[in-house]
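User: Sequence in, structure out. Go.
Assistant: Echoing your sequence, followed by the C-alpha cells.
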Amino acid sequence: MHSPPYVTIMPMKGSGRAHLREVDRWDHGAGWLAYPDEAMQRASHAVEVDGDVWVFDPVDADGLDEFLDELGDVVGVVVGLDRHKRDAAAIATRHDVPVYVASWMTGVADELDAPVERFGTQLADSGFRTFRVVDRAVPPWQEVGFYHDETRTLILPEAVGTVDYYCAASERLGVHPMLRPFPPRRVLSQFDPERLLVGHGAGVMENAGDELRTALSNARKNLPSAYVSAFKSMVSD
C-alpha cells in the first residue's frame, strides 16, 4: 500500500531563536532575513548615508548589532508600515536612537516602547524623500515609501515583494495579493529606481525600475496565477 501524501503548512512567521541571513548587499547598505525558513520572508534593511545608518522595519536576530556596526553608526530606526512595528523599539533602544514614524500614521507611535520622532515629506536628514503608498482604513493599511535620489534607491515595505506568495509563476517581482485588483500605479510610476528594497523577500538590486513597471502593469492580468502561487507557497507536500 502507498502511504497517503502529507501536506505541511509552512509557518507564516518564524519564532524562537532567529538566525540572521544576509539577502542584499550593495555599496550603501544591506538586507537580512531573521527567519529564513518562514513563509512571509520578512526582510529588513539598513542603509548608510554619509556614515549614518538608517534601519528599516527590522526583525531582530543574533549578531544583528555587529552586522549594523559594519555599515556605520545607527542614527534611526524606521517603521514604514503600520503592521511593521516588528522589533523596531528594541533595536532603537539598544542603539539609543529614536523610532521614526510618518506624521500621518495613526495607531503606531503609542505602541512603541521607545522615543518616537515624526517625519513628513523627508526622513530627517537621510536624503530620503517619503510618500504615501497606501492610506486607508478598511482594510487597515498605512504604508510609506522612501526614495533616495542620489543612489536611486526605492524602499517599499509592503506594496510589492519578491517572496513566492507575492508572485505569479512568471514574475520576479509581484504586487501584494490584496493590492493586485487596484495596484498603486499612479504613485509609483514617478520613480525609476536602480534598486528596490522590499519588506518581504530579497531586493531587486539592478534595473529595478523596469521590474517595478512590469509588476504594476501585470498585476491584474496575472492575478489568478498569483493567487495559485500564494496558496502553493504556503503548502508543501
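User: And one key feature?
Assistant: Helices lie at 64-69, 88-94, 185-188, 208-218, 223-234.
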